[in-house]
Each structure stands twice: as C-alpha cells, then as structure tokens.
Amino acid sequence: HKLESLELVGFKSFCDKTSVIFNDRITSIVGPNGCGKSNVAEAISWVLGEQRPKSLRGEKMEDVIFNGTSARKPLGFAEVTLALKPIEEATLDDGIPVDPIVVTRRLYRSGESEYLINDRRCRLLDIHQTFEGTGLGFTSYAIIEQGRIGSILTSKPMERRSLIEEAA
Amino acid sequence: HKLESLELVGFKSFCDKTSVIFNDRITSIVGPNGCGKSNVAEAISWVLGEQRPKSLRGEKMEDVIFNGTSARKPLGFAEVTLALKPIEEATLDDGIPVDPIVVTRRLYRSGESEYLINDRRCRLLDIHQTFEGTGLGFTSYAIIEQGRIGSILTSKPMERRSLIEEAA
Amino acid sequence: SCEQFLEAFKAIDLHFKDLFRVLFGGGECGMLLLDEQDALESGIDIYAQPPGKKLQNIMLLSGGEKALIAFALLIAIFKYRPSPFCVLDEVDAPLDEANIARFTNLVQSMSDVTQFIIITHNKRTIETSQRIYGITMEQPGVSKVVSVSFN
Amino acid sequence: SCEQFLEAFKAIDLHFKDLFRVLFGGGECGMLLLDEQDALESGIDIYAQPPGKKLQNIMLLSGGEKALIAFALLIAIFKYRPSPFCVLDEVDAPLDEANIARFTNLVQSMSDVTQFIIITHNKRTIETSQRIYGITMEQPGVSKVVSVSFN
Ligand SMILES: Nc1ncnc2c1ncn2[C@@H]1O[C@H](COP(=O)(O)OP(=O)(O)OP(=O)(O)O)[C@@H](O)[C@H]1O
Ligand SMILES: Nc1ncnc2c1ncn2[C@@H]1O[C@H](COP(=O)(O)OP(=O)(O)OP(=O)(O)O)[C@@H](O)[C@H]1O
Ligand SMILES: [Mg+2]
Ligand SMILES: [Mg+2]
Fold first, then answer.
1. Cα separation of C144 and C147, whole Å?
2. Using a CB-CB distance cutoff of 8 angstroms, which residues of chain C are in contact with residue A38?
3. How far is A14 from chain B (nearest CA, A)?
4. Rounded CA separation D115/D120 (Å)
5. Between D50, D52, D141, which is nearest C53 by CB?
6. In whole angstroms, what separates CA A129 from the centre of its chain?
7. CB proximity list for C102: less than 8 A, separation 6 or greater
8. Which atom of ligand 1 has the smallest separation from the CA of A67?
9. Mutate which: B33, B67, B148, vs D, most D CBs within 10 A
10. Could you give the CA distance from residue C68 to residue C94 in angstroms, rounded to a whole number?
11. Mean pLDDT (whole number) for B119-132
C-alpha cells in the first residue's frame, strides 16, 4: 500500500476539518514554531492506534481534542482519517486485487472511542493488527517524533530488540 | 569577573594543547558535526567541577581523557584551565582590587585528580565554593548542553527549585 | 533562607513574564509554588500560554515554543543574578527564522553584563557574534581550532 | 520465532553497516546481541566508530553523529521490511550542511519504495521534496494548511 490522504478535525490545533493529500515520494511540511506540524505527525500516530498520551505530549488522551482558543470554543471530539491505496498492480496471492485501507479514529470528551476500518466499526486491536509488522504497528519505527531520533541509541537493549522484532 | 581564556589539553578530542581567548561579548563556535564544539562546552563544565560522567556523555570520568585515534596514542591525563579577569574597576568592598581567577583541573588515568586555583593546589570543594551562586556553581544554570534547553520544563519540580535556589 | 528564596522567586518570575511577553508578543506565563504554605521546601511548576491560545499543560506546546520559554526563564534568572558568562550549545536548533531573530536580540541585549559563548550551525546566529571560532578535525579524531573571524 | 528474529537481525545489521560506511565515508558499526546464547530473549547493543576515531561508548559521539547513526539504523530496518510511509519530524535539526545532503540523498534513494513525510525548517531538505505543505495559524491557536507548492 501507499499513503493517499490524511484528514483531521478537532485534533489538537486542527479544529477545522483539514485534508492533506500525500501523492508524492517526498512531502515536506513547513511553517513557524507552534503552527501545528508535529500535531500532523501525532495525528498519524494516533489514528494508527497510539495509546500512550505521553507519546503525544499529553497527560490524558483527552488532551488531543481541540481545547479552544480565546476566539473559538473547545470541540467535543477529535477525529482523524488515514487513507492508503494499493500500489499499482498489487494483488493478493490469489490474484484478487488489494483493497484500499481507510482507518478512522474518533475520541469524544466523554472518553468514548470509535474505530473504523473501511467504514466498518472495529476495535482498536483490529487497527493494530492491520498494521502489525509494517513499522506502523505497535512498536512503530516508521514515525520519528521531534527530538526522538536519538532514542534508539539511548533506549534500553530490550526496547531496541522490540524494534527489530517488529520488522522480523 | 569576566571570561578571559580557556586552555585544553588531552580533554576528549582536544589531544593537542588548545587555547581559546574569549574577549568579546558574544563568541560563536562553529564547525561540522563531531568536530569538538560540545567538547569545548563540556571542558568548561568540567573545569568548574562537574562530577557526573553522564552529564559529560561518559560512563566514567576517565572517558574525558583523550582516548587516541587510529593515528595517535591515548594520553595519560586531561587538563583544562579557565581564566577569568576582573571587570574594569571592580574592587572589593574595602577598595582592594579584585584578583583574576585561574582554575585548573587535571585528571590522570590512574584516577588521581588535581585542582588548582591561581596556581595553588586546592580541593574540588574549593572550586565549587568559588563559583557558588554565580550560575557556574554546582547547579549550573549558565551552561546549557546540547539538547538540554527544554530540560527545565521537563524536569521535576524540586530540580527547578534548586536552579532558583542557586540564584537566590 | 526562606525569605531569600521568595525574593529571588518573585523577582525572577517578574522578569520571566516580561521576557515572555516580548518574545511571544503577548500571552501569560509564570512560575508557581506547588505548595504555597511550604515555601521552604516546595517544588516549582511552570505555566505558559502563548497569545490567543488556551492555557494547557506546558508539554503540549511545540518544540520551538518550549525552547523559547525555557530560554526566557534562563534569561530571567540571569537578570536577577547575572553569571559572568553563559554557554549555549545549539539552543537555536528548534527555532524558526523569526524566533532566531528574537533569540539573538535577547542575547545581544544581555551581552553587556554576561559574556555569551554560542555553539551553533545557524548563519543568523553566527552573524550576531563579534568573534567566531571554527573547529575542525583535519586529522580524524583530533580537534583543532583553525580560524578566528571577527564580525 | 528465534530463527525469524535472527534472520532479521543479521540482515538489518548488514544494511546498517553498508549505510554507515556510505554516510561516514568509512568506519565500523553494528548491532550486537548482549547475550549470544539467548537469542530469543537477549537485548541489543549498538556500537559505532567513525573513520579514524577509536571505538568508544556510543554516547560520547556528537549530537549530529548520533542522529545520523540512528537514521542509518532506521533505514536499515526499512531495507529489510519497508514501511508504506515514514514520518520524520525535524530529524535534520542537529545536522550540518554536508550531513543534511547525505541525509536527503538517502531519503531520495529510499523514496521509490517508501513515501516520506518530512517536517523541517531546513531549506535544503525542503528543496528535495516534490510537494510542500505550509501550515500557519492566522487565527491564533487554529492550524490551517495554507499552501501547497510543487518542486
Ligand atoms: N488539544 C489542543 N487544542 C488546541 N491546541 C492544541 C492542543 N494541543 C496542542 N495544541 C497547540 O498546538 C501547538 C503545537 O503545535 P506543534 O507541536 O504541531 O507545532 P510545530 O509546528 O511542530 O512547531 P515547532 O516547529 O516548534 O516544532 C501548541 O501551541 C499547542 O498550544
Ligand atoms: N575521550 C575522547 N578521546 C577522543 N575523542 C573523543 C573522546 N570523547 C569524545 N571524543 C570524540 O569527540 C567527538 C564529539 O565531539 P563533539 O560532541 O564536541 O562534536 P560537536 O562539534 O559538538 O558536533 P555536533 O555538531 O554534531 O554536535 C566524537 O566524535 C568523539 O569520538
Ligand atoms: Mg514540532
Ligand atoms: Mg555538539
């Protein structure tokens, strides 16, 4: 599969619905300090099932819901959708064409969560399993947060092992 | 006082004797990755009495001694000297002119250490006490190591207190 | 002593607020004693709210915002108790161009009282220094100061 | 399974060595099992020795050297098990100009198999991307994607 698009609404500073298309080999995201770039990276981690608020700079998961500004009220939920499409001529072993994967995660202030794969409700576990072993799974090595590139060198030996295990 | 000069020999990658003069309000240190810039900053921390090898990226204090290269042998000791001179017309309360301060720290591979203030042997404690309350002392707030600027925000409440106490 | 600490705490907090407003063009910030009844032992908390944004856990702020706030607090401490010199190792790494200008302006304004030694890869920062030391390793693993330039 | 892990471990280690030599122009590096007898449970250690330097504790290396080594290991994992995409948030911040060029070359060579999303302040890095999204906060606290440029 390859990446197609990312949609955010109510996720951190992206209170208005925002769509980002990723059609290219290399896409750069730029802008001044504090404008929301890392929030985009965290939206991707989050929709793929990141469960630790601390990995998203928060204390509780509710911290990802748009909290309002002096001019805008807080929102009641955060929602992120990630769409992947099959690479050309990708087929499963039996010749059946590969389907696109559209993953949606929604969190309400009440604490209720919803997860969808291709518009069908599912559990968080299903999202984890869909991406297991791709580097986007539980022990994600494909998303390097700000300031964290050196972490593989400072991390514990068993933490490094789990990165290799994810790829194995 | 104000800074005058720094001399290093055998300290990390500075195996040859190096003298750096600091006569200006703002001095920048530049160069490619791995050339030794942070080693200069650590030499200053070290000569002022830094005792934690981890704060100098090492496991043991011996790690600061030049360890050799494929072309150069390791050295048997590391030595750093920091010289401060009085600001113009600085005088002590009784009109006696303020003296320059020249601090030297030497560490031998045997583990033996030597400390000097103005060419007289002293203890590490004397160095700590000389700079206490100047921000260069034990809880140094005047030396910000690479990657550590955010640490005051991530550190524990009591660690922040000790910074304010150092200034108090 | 408790009095001495509180005097320093309050003075530094005022400087912190001034500097923050200059660097962020507004907003609110400060230090708080976690236990107001126990000023002798209490830890310190830090809050910051850039203009127009809502007050949240400081960790939710961006990398560049946190670096600038931490630097403002450091300079606030210097304004209360100046150090003879200050060594900054790549503190400008997470800052955008506009914030690098604010950072260098603040350093310049403080440099009459405190000497600054700044390790940096950034051209704008280098331009504000009076003296530049270049370090290289012509021989692998052996550091050498090879140049001194003056602005 | 133990076999699967060892196969991945050895393959990734070989890629890591190749990439390190390309990025550093020589030198040695690798991953080691802390307990060779217990491949099923053993943790992993990493060593790296830039050309001409002596092998030391990896933590003694510089900020930029560590970032480049960590990135080499990451790409080594990608070569063994490509991920559909990779998100890099300011990994180029500690790198000097020459290393940024090596970093962007490596990203370009991997981008036929893996899509890269790179958050950066660095002009050189931006120049290597095909699409650029600019994010701003015209309304304080409200992020907006305001521009899409194509190289
Ligand atoms: N739940 C939330 N609601 C509203 N705003 C939020 C929320 N969580 C975080 N923010 C805001 O998002 C901003 C941080 O955005 P982000 O970390 O993406 O910036 P950035 O573009 O990566 O900046 P830098 O270049 O400094 O790394 C902060 O100013 C913070 O106030
Ligand atoms: N005891 C030692 N003997 C010899 N070389 C050492 C010793 N300790 C550290 N080094 C070397 O010093 C180098 C690191 O230098 P330093 O951290 O000062 O680089 P830097 O100029 O700050 O780079 P960057 O821009 O990446 O931060 C490393 O390559 C390391 O091998
Ligand atoms: Mg960021
Ligand atoms: Mg450095």
1. 9
2. 62-63
3. 25
4. 16
5. D141
6. 14
7. C22, C23, C68
8. 3
9. B33
10. 9
11. 92
Q: What is the mean pLDDT of each run of 10 residues along chain C (151 residues)?
A: 91 98 97 90 95 96 98 96 94 98 98 96 96 96 89 75
| Region D136-151 average pLDDT | 90
Expressed in angstroms and rounded, the spacing between residue C9 Cα and the centre of ligand 1 is 29
HEC-encoded secondary structure of chain C:
CHHHHHHHHHHHHHHHHHHHHHHHCCCEEEEEECCCCCCCCCCEEEEEECCCECCCCHHHCCHHHHHHHHHHHHHHHHHHCCCCEEEEECCCCCCCHHHHHHHHHHHHHHCCCCEEEEECCCHHHHHCCCEEEEEECCCCCCCEEEEEEEC
Tokens of B117: 């203030």
Partner-chain contact A69 C68, CB within 8 Å: no
- Sign (positive or negative) of CA dihedral C104, C109, C112, C113: negative
Q: How many CB atoms lie within 10 A of CB A149?
A: 24
SS (H, E, C) D117-141: EEECCCHHHHHCCCEEEEEECCCCC
* Interface contacts (A, D; CB < 8 Å): 215
**Residue B97 touches partner A, C-beta closer than 8 Å:** no
Say which DSSP state D95 is in.
Answer: -
Could you tell me which chain A residue has the CA closest to the CA of B54? A154
Q: Closest ligand 2 atom to the C-alpha of B31?
A: 21
pLDDT of residue A116: 97
Please count the other Cβ atoms lying within 10 Å of the Cβ belonging to residue A18.
20
Rounded distance from Cα D30 to ligand 4 centre (Å): 23
CA distance linking residue B36 with residue C59, whole number of Å: 31
Cα atoms found within 13 Å of the Cα of residue B102, Cβ hemisphere only? 7
- Spatial separation of the C-alpha atoms in residues D88 and A71, rounded to whole Å: 32
